[in-house]
Amino acid sequence: MGEVQLLKLDTKKLALASVLAALAAASEVIKGPPFDIPFPLLPNVVSWDITGVPMMISLLFTGPIGGIYTTVIGCSIIFLRGNVAGGIFKLVAELATVLAFAAIRRGIVTKSIAATASRVLVMTTVNYFALPFFYPKYYPSEAAVIGILLPLAVFNLSQALLNIIPAQIIYNRLGGWWRLRCPETNSLEPASIKT
Fold first, then answer.
1. Each residue of 61-100: pLDDT tens digit?
2. The dihedral of CA 135, 156, 111, 170: what is its sign?
3. Domain 9-186 CATH assignment equals 1.10.1040.20
4. Is residue 75 a contact partner of residue 28, using CB atoms and an 8 Å limit?
């Protein structure tokens, strides 16, 4: 019989990913500093937040499945509040960061550069096509959209680093402790299932 390779998400990882998803959702609900700081180049359009930090922590401690789970649950609160456009933009941005970081198997610098570049490229493309669709009043022409792409790219670059750097610091401090208490779990080790 063949073997199917799956990434394992055991009970401990699921519990941790769920707690981190709740933290991400809570940080999305609470407005104002330190949870929500207007981005200086576009203060009435976007703001820095810490929602992505628990998502990156989840990725580092629980692996790609846990990171995706935390991201989807953490961003779902935006949809539940009725902000469909904002939820789509946030979910795509965070998944672009998390998935690129997970896909690279090299060091932290390479992973960070890939995740940041992924977020900037994906969100620049999404912004180009989706801003006129969701916000035609503010972006009625291609020129209006193109005019905001550079500041949004700078925002996405800085937001990606704001998510990655604190998460990596936390992982560096607590990752060894987590591995000692959960020796059977390796966040990136595939589990075999006989079929």
1. 999 999 999 999 999 999 999 999 999 999 999 999 999 9
2. negative
3. no
4. yes
